[in-house]
Amino acid sequence: MDIEIKLDSGVTVPKVIIITDKVDKEIEELVEKISKYKPSVICGFRDDIMRILEPSEISRIYSEGRKIVAVTDNGEYIIRKRLFEVEETMELSRFARISNSEIINLSKVQHFDLSFRGTICVKMNDGSVTYVSRRYVSKIKSILGV
Length: 146
Known about the structure:
This protein is of the alpha+beta class. The chain has one domain (42-144): CATH 2.40.50.1020. Helices cover 18% and strands 35% of the residues. It has helices spanning 25-36, 83-89, 137-144, and strands at residues 42-46, 49-53, 58-64, 67-72, 75-79, 95-99, 102-105, 109-113, 120-124, 129-132. A hairpin with a 2-residue loop joins β3 and β4. The longest helix is centred in the first third of the chain and has 12 residues, at 25-36. The protein is globular, with a radius of gyration of 19 Å.
């Protein structure tokens, strides 16, 4: 497959054109992926300030009571979305759900401790510790290739 990108300063919305002799499975999958793509922004609130949170600065996102909290390099922010909505916007290769109430950034994990029976202890780079619930252990192991 050839990929060509044309830069045009007059274009404000990207446009994808597929030129092909027939529509096969590969083209259908490509169209499906492109159609599902939604640029996403995660907004965090602290005090009376709203800030756009870069995924690379987020360590973990968890629910606490009725609030969704994002832990970042710059402190904690409240997110005004449900956890499943946040999960849909996260890059799946970088983030993983570890319980019904928590998503972690895999690139912010210091190590996984597998010595616990039935669960996995996760130590984050910032020193915090969290746990993979039993329900998500097999999913995390498959992500990690264990």
